[in-house]
Amino acid sequence: MDQVDFFISYNKADVHWATGIGNWLEQAGYSTILQAQDFVPGSNFVSEMHKAVQQGERTLAVLSPDYLGAKFPEAEWTTAFAKDPTGENRTLITVRVRDCKPPGLLASIVYIDLVGLKPAEAEKTFLLEIQASLSGRRVTSTSPRRKSKRAEATPGAESPSTIRQTILGNNNTQVAGDYVENKKVLQKNIVQPDHRHIDEATAFEIKRLVDFLADIDVLAGRRDSHSGWFSRLYRRYKVTSYKLIPAELGEDAVQWLRQQVPQQRSKIRRKVPDEWRQQLYKSIWSKAGRLGLGKQEVYDLALRRLALQKPLSSLKELGEQKLKTLYDIIIRM
């Protein structure tokens, strides 16, 4: 049974929220199971739900009055809660999309709150909070600096996003018994990220992709390559920090890093084949989700395009070459 990152549990009244959340997750590179996309006509609902709860490493519960008042969702979230009752591994993550008050055991779970947020703000908040949940640490943001009245009144004053440092160097010399003190003054401007640069959600995605690429190198037996990937980004966008990439080039940077993944992934195919397969599974399901393809549709596609002798029930039944071929087909769709 192929493992996925998130099983999204929701009530039918919130299907648009659930679908949107699924799209946000898959665009960020996570794999999901969603009833609206993965439960096809003719399948057994209870059986599919049972498999979904087992396949999802985490259950994401979409909270609303309808969700809290329904019976089936309760069975879904309580299964996840039972796996991790203390919340140490964040196996159950809750996100509130309509005004409601979680009762009982759900009240003990800190939820992601999207109530009242505009779509763009909701997406940004959601992805940042998901990252905090997965890492166990929230990414803090720095509030914009306020200009002082003195700075506003002084011609040529530095902008609030610039820090001026003055460094005194000690380069003293002694000539013919006389002590000569030389002070070398070095001034350096350090630019801080502001509205001209990528936002936190884009910065997080870039960092996640760099971590992923560096992990591939480690798995392939090479040394840690974080600095190498960041250096390539700095040269490509002529910046000194990835957080200083111009806002209009943020998506380009993300896409460029994503293009490097298939090339680098080939390094681990022979050394750690199980990890290689897991990465292909996740990429296939992630892209299939963005295309609106359910699980059975992917299996049917594989049956036709790979000329299989019998229908698939899991991608694990494919050999390496056929799995790679299916990956190439779906990624290019």
Structure characteristics:
333 residues, 13 helices, alpha/beta, 3 domains, globular, Rossmann fold, two-stranded antiparallel ribbon, five-stranded parallel beta sheet
Task: Explain what the structure shows.
- The protein is an alpha/beta fold.
- It folds into 3 domains: 4-135, 3-Layer(aba) Sandwich (Rossmann fold), CATH 3.40.50.10140; 193-271; 273-332, no CATH class.
- The protein contains 13 helices and 9 strands.
- The protein has helices spanning 15-27, 35-38, 45-55, 65-69, 72-83, 119-135, 149-153, 200-219, 226-237, 250-265, 273-291, 295-305, 320-331, and strands at 4-9, 32-34, 56-63, 92-96, 112-113, 162-170, 173-175, 178-180, 183-191.
- The strands form 3 sheets. The chain has a 5-stranded parallel β-sheet with strand order 2-1-3-4-5, sandwiched between helices.
- β1 (4-9), α1 and β2 form a beta-alpha-beta unit.
- It is globular.
- Mean pLDDT is 78; it is low at 141-156.
